[in-house]
Amino acid sequence: MTVNGKRKVFSGVQPTGNMHIGTYLGAFRNWVKLQHEYEAIYCVVDLHALTVPVDPAELHRNRIEAVKVLLAVGIDPDKSLVYMQSQVPQHAELAWILGTMTPTGVLNRMTQFKEKSARAGANLGLYSYPVLMAADILLHRADLVPVGDDQRQHLEMTRDVAERFNNRYGEVFPLPEALIPETAARVMSLTDPRAKMSKSDPNPRSAILMLDTADDIRKKIKGAVTDSEPTVAHDWDAKPGISNLLELMSAATGRPVDALVGEYAATGYGVFKEAVAEAVIELAAPIKARYGGLDDKEVAVLLEKGADDARSSAERHQAEVRAAVGLDGV
Ligand code: TYM
Q1: CATH number 3.40.50.150 is the correct assignment for the domain at 2-184+296-325
Q2: Architecture of domain 204-290
Q3: What is the pTM of this model?
C-alpha cells in the first residue's frame, strides 16, 4: 500500500517494562532506520500486555516508559506516528472479524502461546493474541513489519489470515513482510544462553536493560554464562554463550562476527567480555542520556495527537473492511 508514494511500515512493542538490548537490536534499530524511507507507524500495544496478569499501576507506568524509550532510541515524532493501541478501538474490532477466519488448529500451534500459557496459565486473550497482532498490522495496511526472530511465526500467520480474507472478500489487505535483522535477531539470556533474553525473565542478571548503568552492564557481561573451553568462536551448538556475546558485539559495533573472532580467538574470555561490555556501554549511553531529558507531559501531548491521527486513518481503513464483509450502514 503506498501513500504519497511511500510504502508503509508498522510495528509494535508491549509495555511490559524492563526494555532490554535485544528489543533494541532485534527491532527498534530497524524502526529508526525505516522511518526515513517509509510512512512509519509504531504502536505501544498495551492491550496485548493484558494477556498476562499485570498490576494496573505498573502497566500505566510502563506504557509511558515504553513511549519514552522509543523516543530515546531515535523514533522521531515528526517522521513516525506513535500511539497507544488501546486508544484506537478499531484494532479490537478488526481482531474480532479476523478471528472468525482463523482456524483454532493454527492458534494451537503458536509457540509463544504454548510457552506463555505453560508459565502463566491459558486465557482466551493469550490464545487469540496472534489474531490481535494480525489486526494491528493489517489495520494499517502495512507492507513491512520490522521484528525480532521470535515474531516470525506470528507474521506468517498474519499473511495467511490476510490471504484468506482477500480470497473471500476481495483484495483489501497487502501481504506484509517481516524484516528481521541478520545479526542479533534473537539475543539470548546472559544467564541461560539457550533461552531468549526476555522482559519476563525474573533473573535481573539475564538481560541488559537499555537504561542500565555502565557498571551494571560490565557486571552482567562479566557474569554471563559461557563454557569452560577458553577459545572465542562462533558456534551456537557448542558455545551458545560466547556466540551470543559475539553477535551482541557485532551488532553493537557494526564489525562482522568473523573479524571479532579473528581478534579475540586467543585472548581468553576475560579480555573478550571486557570488550563486549565497552561496546554495549557505548551503544546504550546516548539512549540513556536522551531518555533522561524527556518530559512526561510532552509525551502525553504527543500521544494524544498520535491517537487522533491513528484513529482517523484506522477508521478510514476499517470502513473498507466493514463494507467488504457486509457490515456497512443499515
Ligand atoms: P515484544 O514487546 O516482546 O518485543 C518487541 C520487539 O522486540 C523484539 N525482541 C527481540 N529481538 C531480539 N532478541 C530478543 N531477545 C528480543 N526480545 C524481543 C521482538 O521480536 C519485537 O519485534 N508480539 C509483539 C508485539 C506486537 C507486534 C504487533 C509486533 C503486537 N502487535 C504487530 C509487530 C507488529 C511482542 O510481543 O513484542
Answers
A1: no
A2: Orthogonal Bundle (1.10)
A3: 0.96
